[in-house]
Amino acid sequence: MAFDSEIAFFAKVFGPAHATTQVAQALVDKGLKFEVGLYILKALSHGAVYQVTLTKGSTSLMKGVLPPELVSQNKTLITEWLDTLALIFLKTPATEAQKESHSHFDPPGWTSEPPPTLKWTFTGFSGNKLLAIKAIQTLMGWSLTTAKTFVESVQSGKDGGPLVVGPNHAAAVLSALLDAKVGAMGLSQLGNETVNLSQAGAQVAQIVTGQTSAVSESVKGLSKATVKATASVQGLAEGLEHGPAIYQSKPKQSPQPQPKKTSQVISLRDAEAIGQPVHGTSSGSVYYTVATGPRVRLAARVHKGGSVSIRAEWKPEPTADEKKKLQDIGLQMKSNYASMHLNAAEVPVGRVIGAFVVGVGLEWDAIVKSSAELVVEG
Q1: Which of 147, 242, 312, 323 is the most exposed place for a label (fewest CB within 10 A)?
Q2: What pLDDT is stored for residue 208 in this prediction?
């Protein structure tokens, strides 16, 4: 879309004097260029691309024809994206005025440094072209046409990149790219370290480990409603690695009857017991419950090779704050569930799941007690 100025879109959505628009202007002053697509906003800087995907079209957002909850959701996506760019390019935390206008500026574990990002440069795809296009489309949130042009350009001998990959989906996307059916080849850069794309799992693991450490450091700031026992917090932050003795989802009280876990596979939204097998999206896909709360339930599917799938369902409908927390931690939101897929690489899957359960910031009635309770397939 063409605009009168680099910040015209932000001024239209937020207002010319809004703190988010001011952040966009400061980034433009630093040399960033913004592009607005139908569903994607991009920031371009010296060949690197940073982008965010909206849940609804940018035109509808500008016209103000969306329901209030969708307007709020998309404004939050844009604001947090700009906040990340501000930490990268402006190197300063938000001003007090900005913090008041969007208090989510400083997520747990962030101080003055942004989360690490990977830069991937592609030199070829040895597998199926259509699958390669789909993988790149998922990686960048591009349209099918843009992804097709990119893959064909790489296959014609031109380097594709560097493409900037955020921490939330790096593991899942890397796993898809390195699948033999896609066969992505190229380089991966994290900071000053550059390796072949096939060796990038260690870099992704470094990011995941860093996020886990950030969760551990931010545990003290979690509310009592979010995590109900110090022992539970310590155990989960350490990664469910020390056996069941230290895990308590509630302070000890008089014995209460526990929900009975059965072998019957049911809907996750109906699960009441940790370890309960539940349905995934695909026929025959089975997950196992790892956390239950007043509205939201979480389940995980773990493979021996290290890949982890996490699924959330709810009953009744979660609050807007709960939906935001699920989305902020990296889950892809659907109409009646949310999910994400990642490769834990060399990080113990218990650590990944433990950090996820704590880091999402929701209230739980019960949580998985130890790595021994996780079912590993294959």
Answers
A1: 242
A2: 57
Q: Are strands 296-303 and 376-377 parallel, antiparallel or unpaired?
A: parallel
Burial of 54 (0-12, 13-18, 19+ CB in 10 A): buried
- Alpha-helical (H) ranges within the chain are 8-14, 19-29, 58-63, 68-89, 96-101, 129-140, 144-155, 170-177, 201-218, 230-237, 320-328, 349-359
**DSSP secondary structure of 125-154:** E-S-HHHHHHHHHHHHT--HHHHHHHHHHH
Residue 295: how many other CB atoms lie within 10 Å? 16
What pLDDT does 278 receive?
A: 92
Give the Å distances, CA to CA, from 135 to 170, 246, 295, 345: 12, 41, 33, 19
The answer to whether 181 and 131 are in contact (CB under 8 A) is yes
Query: How many whole angstroms separate alpha carbon 84 and alpha carbon 115?
Result: 8
3-state secondary structure of 366: strand
For residue 102 the two structure tokens come to 């969007």
Which residue ranges in the chain fall short of pLDDT 70? 1-4, 91-116, 141, 166-169, 206-262, 344-346, 378
The phi and psi torsions of 186 (rounded to 5 degrees) equal 155, -155
What angle is formed at CA 37 by the lines to CA 182 and CA 325, rounded to 5 degrees? 75
What does the block give as tokens for 231? 């022992």
d(CA 287, CA 278): 5
Nearest to 329 by CA among 310, 348, 316, 302: 310
Question: Are residues 108 and 221 in contact, defined by beta-carbon separation less than 8 angstroms?
Answer: yes
* Alpha carbon distances (Å) from 92 to 100, 111, 342: 16, 9, 31
pLDDT score at 377 = 80
Can you tell me the distance from the alpha carbon of 251 to that of 231, in angstroms, rounded to the nearest whole number?
Answer: 9
